[in-house]
Amino acid sequence: LPGLHVFTIAFALEVSVGKANTVMALNNSDVLLPCTFTTCIGFQDLVFMWYFNSTEMIYHGKIKNKASEPTLVDRNPRVEFVGSTTGKDNNISIVLKNVEFSDAGKYTCHVKNPKEKDAKHNATIFLTVVQKMVETDNTLTLIIVGVVGGLIGLLILFMLIKRVVLFIIKKTQDGKKDYLVSSSGNDNTENGLAGSKAEQKAPPKA
After folding, report:
1. Are residue 92 and residue 151 in the same domain, yes or no?
2. DSSP 103
3. What is the dihedral of CA 98, 103, 106, 108, to 10 degrees?
4. Cα–Cα dist 17/5, whole Å
5. Same domain, 120 and 40
6. pLDDT in tens, 115-166
7. Which pLDDT score is estimated for 51?
């Protein structure tokens, strides 16, 4: 039935290794390989396995139900189970100890849930092994940020100077206009210029 098919998909088994599917580890260090699974209808006699490069099984475990922790079936001596399935998350993560350069590669977490008609799902994480962690050199970034910041600062300074200069020019022009207006309306009597009041007086009578 179509409705039953949709119902089955809604409760499908899901396996996840987190948002990042790559892990970097130092040579001779221990590294966590995360894995969790979800299923809305629960699980019974669930089986999970970890594989290296799809062929070499490095951990095999079983979980009876939600109330019990996983039991070991088989594992590589350098692999340790660090998860838990009785808490909020169904965590089946492992730790690979004393990693070597030959351990770099693909690690796949497989889960099979008989309660979902043996539904299977898996997720893969890639491990990179390095001699030493490379620190990110932020010098170039800091230089770029400094230059951009300096240019912005100069632009702001230029705009301020431009405003001040324009203000001074405007004030100077306004001052000249006031001077011309006041000069054109001056009484020129004392200067003896043509059109002055001294010349406009009528000559004295004899």
Report:
1. no
2. G
3. -50
4. 27
5. yes
6. 988 899 999 999 999 998 765 556 666 777 777 778 888 888 888 898 888 8
7. 98
